[in-house]
Each structure stands twice: as structure tokens, then as C-alpha cells.
Amino acid sequence: MVQSNADLKASKSPEEQLNQQDPDKDGFVDKAWNFFSSMKLGLFLLLIIAAASIAGTIIPQNGSPQEYGSLYSLYNTLGLVDMYHSWWFQTLLFLLAMNLFICSVNRASSLWRVFSNPRIKRADGEISRMDHSFHADKAISEEGVVQQVKDACRDKGYRVFTEQEPGRTFLYAEKGRFGIWGSLISHIGLLVILIGAVIGIYAGQEGQMPAEVHSTFHIRDVQGLGTVDGDFDVRVDDFKTVYRPDGSIQAWISRLTILDKGQEILTKDIEVNHPLEFRGFKIYQSFYGANIPTKVTSKEIPQGYDFTINEGDFIPVPGTNLGVLAYKYVPDFDPQYGLQSKSDQPNNPRMVYVLYRGKEQIGVGAAELGKAEVLAGGEGQITFQRYAPYTGLTIRRDPGVAIVWLGCAVLLIGLGLSFYMPHRRIWAIVEGNNGKSSLSFGGFAQKNKIAFEQDFTQLRDKL
Amino acid sequence: MTDMVAQENLLFYITFAAYGLATFLYIGFLVIRNQSLARIGYYSIVIGVLANTAALALRAIVAGYVPLTNGYEFLLAFSWGIASVYLFAEKKYQIPVAGAFVVPTAWLILAYVAVLMDPASRAARPLMPALQSNWLTYHVITAMFSYGAFAFSFGVGIMYLWKKSAESREKQRGVVAFLPSSEKLDEIGYRLIAIGFPLLTLCIITGAIWAEYAWGRYWSWDPKETWSLITWLIYAAYLHARFTYGWKGNRAAWMAVIGFLAVLFTFFGVNYFLSGLHSYAK
Ligand code: HEM
Known about the structure:
The structure holds 2 protein chains of 2 kinds. Chain A is of the alpha+beta class. In chain A, 33% of the residues lie in helices and 34% in strands. In chain A, strands 4, 9, 10, 11, 16, 17 and 18 form a 7-stranded antiparallel β-sheet that branches. Chain A has a 5-stranded antiparallel β-sheet with strand order 1-20-19-3-2. The longest helix of chain A is centred in the N-terminal third of the chain and has 30 residues, at 87-116. Chain B has 2 domains: 1-127, Up-down Bundle (Four Helix Bundle (Hemerythrin (Met), subunit A)), CATH 1.20.120; 133-282, no CATH class. Chain B contains 10 helices and no strands. Chain B has helices spanning 2-32, 35-63, 71-93, 99-116, 119-122, 134-168, 174-178, 182-215, 223-245, 249-273. At the A-B interface, helix 3, strand 7, strand 10 and helix 10 of A face helix 8 and helix 9 of B. Protoporphyrin IX containing FE (HEM) sits between chains A (14-15, 39, 42, 45-46, 96, 99-100, 103, 182-183, 186-187, 190, 415, 418, 447) and B (236, 239-240, 243-244). Chain B: InterPro entries: Cyt_c_assembly, Cyt_c_biogenesis_CcsA, Cyt_c_biogenesis_CcsA/CcmC.
């Protein structure tokens, strides 16, 4: 690229500098390439994605058709019901990725030139048109002034290059040259994040597993993980809820053991924020509950029915108008404590229930587990067999996550370079004339101009 | 225990009063241009920040966790971020008039707490399991500093717009004449966004890491997340428009203003108008 005078003023856009390379290319491919690398498209995409995202936060996402009422079919056609996964939103993201990629490729070589081959020589006129410049006549020799300029710049942490001609020395000093890579690295980071996200969408899987304590399940039997290639078992050794003295919940903790062909591999306590990771799977503590196998019989239907119920379920007694609300499980029941458990230990496990006839509440009781409870003088019987707590596990596999984190790290490095390592450049010409000399000195910074101005003022005062 | 709660409450009102006093002093300074008003205003913010810090520290002791989890605690931290970034930026860029445009935001946030939040919603509450994460702490700390920087750029953006409209009408008298030159305001506004943007990025990333640990999803498009992304996109557009097209001046100032409005909406709007995972922060 021929460096034009345009880059002497930092206020001139680098886009102009960098895109000037081939003004006479105008084939279709080049036009498309230029379109995709243009910042206009970039800005348009950033703002349109922002605007679309706003719409997505106002229109409820993934609701049931009723929530949207008469607008449902319109929203559904426009992809507004699950907007962030709609084809048009994904297309916008894809265009952004293309834009970023092409613009990064375009700029890489020019950046490399600025980075590795700084232009040392500048004409006098160029220097005086820079953001900051001054001219001074000196009473000492050319070499002396060159040395002064070098020392002053080095003191401020600049790297200095010189090039000599008879009677003239050109100087170039720069600081923060790694900073020019910042934007490119940020863009690459963002691309990597998008790639990781796409991998997650296509290769990630998630399943839910309510697993009773002491039970073992195979990873492939988890709903939602059907096709995965994992081959191990998970055993739930324990599950408990830890309460604080004030009764609020501090943690849910499950102790899990991973088994490979019957061999114990590892055991870990998981809780919210502390999942277990194994062969690319992550097992999260995400919900809990208890299964209660229950048998109900009545005079008319003595063989009865078997159910598995949960706390809070309502069980009709077949052939009667009676019904039982399985209200609450109390591990250590004591009438004096009412519904509160006397201790955490299952010393006297009971199921507290409410008996209804029709809609009317006709009695309450605390049924012993495993023993038939006689209802309404013998019209029916109910047996709460066991109380089997389960832990609700969410199991995920997302091969894209590591890539996303890598992208985040790259993005942060890029931003750090971009904003905390501003590239600052200075040029000088020293012309000797019979033991005297004249100095032209100028420079600019693309970013952090205030700091550069300070540097520059201090240098001017020294010289 | 109740003693500490009372002290914390007292500290809140000291902070509130100090920022309020500073607001009036700085506005007074803007109007009558007496240097000592700005100086007292500055000290009054220093006192406010000290009280604000102490209030947060006491809350940490009472609650037993880093106090950045419910709406009250976050607003207290938000005002802390604005005020402490202000102390730093006023000294660094030598623009005491900015106080009249930045400090009111910190004060109004606390006024919102004082007027609209009842004691029950201010009280320390036990942390639900999902909130017990160091990543959450980093998430909110980075949010605080980046929002502080954006609040400053917002104030500077307003100053810019005012200054510029007066310049274009060639009415350069009184208060407006006293504002720094529009070029300087423009550059300062940019610097603050350049500081805030990487921090906002860090804030979003630490939030994603936390979500990954807590729910197994680093991104779920919940409204709060999405609004922080919208804010991020607006500032990214600002940086690019500025850098490649030299979009400075009015357009840049408007974007700085809009960016901060998006920040405010991310906090207030999302909690009060939209729903999602983060709404437990209410
Ligand atoms: C949200 C997405 C993006 C992020 C986070 C990002 C990040 C950055 C950063 C941090 C800078 C340095 C800016 C400064 O120092 O003021 C930059 C510069 C730049 N970006 Fe982006 N960018 C994004 C999107 C894009 C897109 C879509 C394009 C496509 C054209 C683009 C093209 C450029 C250009 C041409 C520069 C000038 C850089 C230079 O010469 O240093 N960016 N970007």
C-alpha cells in the first residue's frame, strides 16, 4: 500500500487509508468483498441486532400460543415467538460474522506493514501537518540534537529508529505498537465466540434426570441425551437440603459416584454453582423432590390401585367420593410440633394428609409409612409405602463451551491491547548546518490523544 | 445485630446527604462559578464515598456475603461506582464542572432507594443457592466500575450537547462559556467509554461464566442479559463510528447519552417492566 498523506492526521479514518489499495477493482466479486468488509455494513448490523434484541425482550419469548392471543400467528410467521433462534436473527449474526471475518482479513496485511516496517522518512511538510508539531532552531550540531531527541524519546519509553542522509537525519519513535493488533484480536475473539456458540447449538445436548437416592442410571438413558456416545453410570449416594437457622435454604447437595463398567471412578458432592464434570458432560444440581409409591383401596375395589405420587398431590379413592391430599412429609413426627419435624432424622416418618368428601374437608391425619391408613371408618384405605427423595439433575454436554471461553479470553486480550496500549508515533527531521541545526518534530496518536498530548508537551519542553 | 442494621441505615443517609450536598454545590458552582463551591463539593463526595463504602462493608458483615445481590445492595454499589469513578475522573481530566452533570445521577439513584424502597426490600436476605458464587461478585464489581465510567461519559455528553448548541447559536455567555471546549469534552467522553467498554465486556463474560456454573448455560437470552448485550452493542457501534468515520461531536455525544440510558434500562427497566431469571434481584 502506498501510504498517502491521509494518515498524517489521525482524524482521517484508517478505513480510508486501508481501503485505498485498489481503486480500480470493480468486478462483482470485488464489489461483494468490499460490501462485506465495509464498516457501513458493520455499523448497520450492530445497530439492527441491538434493535431486534430490544424487540425480543419486549415480546415474551417461547410462551404458549394463548399468551400472544390473536397476534400469535403473525408473531409465529415473523419468527418473533422464538426470535433469537429465528432464521432471520441467525442470518444477522451470520452476516456480522462474515463482515468481521472479511474486514479482519482485509486489514491484517496493512497492519502487518505498519507494525513491522515503520516509515522513518517523512517530508517536512508532512510533519508540520500532524496533530502536534513544532519547529526549532538549535545552536548545537546535528549529532547533538539527534542524541537529544533519541534520549528524550527513550526516556518516555519510545523505541527510536533513525535513517541518515548527508546533512539530514530522520527519526521515528513509537510506543505501544502492539496496540495496533488490539482491534484485529478482538474481532478474532468475537468470531471464535460465535463459532463456539454455533457448535453448542448443533452439537450440544441437555437432559433432565430425577434420580432417587441410592439409584443408578446410565447416561444414555437420560431423556434428551439419547444419541450421545457417553458410556458410564451415575449413582446417587445421597441428597440433602441444608437449612440455615432461620429456615431458609442454604444448599442442595447431591453425592454422586461415576461408574465405568461397574468400576467406581470418582465421587463428588455437587450443589448449585458446583457441577460435576466428567468426559465432557456436566451434571448440575437443578431441582429436587420425592417419589411416594402409594396404594389406595376401597370397599368396592379391594384390589385397589398403585400410584407414584409427590407431596401436594390429590388422590381420589376409587368408587367413593373421598379424596386424599398428601399434604406434607414429616420425617420425625411429634404431635406437639405439628407440621414441624422434631429433628432431621427419620425417627417417626409420617405423611400428613387431609381427607375430603367431595369438596369438603372431613379430617386430617398423619399416616405411618408402609402401614394402611383407614379412611372414613373403613370406606377406603391408603398406604404411603415409602418416601423416596430424588435429586433433580440437569446433564449437559456442550463441546462449544471451551471454545466460547477461549474466544472470550482472546476478546479481552484484544480489548486490553486496543484500549490500554495506544499506538503513539513521532517523526523528526534534524538538519545540520555549520555546527548549528534545525529540528522538525511532530506526531500523533490514533487513540488516547490526551495522554499523547502530555507526552508531546513534555518532549517539546525538553527539546 | 439490630445495632449494625441501624448504623448501616445511618450510613446510607449520610451517603445520600453527602451526594445531595455535592449535587447542590456543583450546580451552584456552575451557576456562580466560585471555585470554593467545587472544592467543598469534591470533599463532600469524598465523605459520601467513605460512608458509601462503610455501608457496603457493614452490609457485608451483617449479611455474611459480598453485598451485591438484591436491588438495594446493587443500587448502593451503583452509586458507589459513579461517585468513585467521578473522584478519579475529575482529578484526572481537571473538569470540576462535570460534577453538576454526573453527581446528580448518583444522588438520584439513592433518592430512588430512599423514596421508593421500603425497609423490607432493603433488608439483607439469606442468599439463595444460585447466588452463592464468586463469579457473581466479579460480575457486579465490573458492572459497577463500567457503569460509573458510562455515567461520567453521559454527563460529559450532556455538557457537550449544551455547549455545542450554544456555540452554533454563537451564544457564548454565562454558564455555557464556562464549560470546557467542545473538543475537550468530546475526547474526555470517548476516554471514559474506552475505559468502560472493556469493563462491560468483562462484566458480561463473568456473568456468562456464573450462569454456566449455576444453570449450565452461559447465555440464555433472558431480558437482563440481552439488555447488557444491547448496551454493549451500542457502545461498540459508538467506538467504530468514531474510529472509522471520525463520528465525533453531536452524534457521538448522543450515542454516549443513549448508551447510558440503555445502562439504566438494563437495571431499572428490566426489573420493573420485563421478566426473567434476574428478576429475583427485585
Ligand atoms: C460487536 C462487535 C465488535 C467488537 C467488539 C469490535 C471490537 C473492536 C475494537 C475494540 C476496536 C478498536 C476500537 C477503538 O480503539 O476505538 C475495533 C476497531 C475496528 N473494528 Fe471492530 N468490533 C466489532 C465489530 C466490527 C465489525 C462488524 C467490523 C466490520 C467492518 C469492524 C471493523 C473494525 C475496524 C475497521 C476497526 C478499526 C480498527 C483499527 O484500525 O484499529 N468491527 N473493533
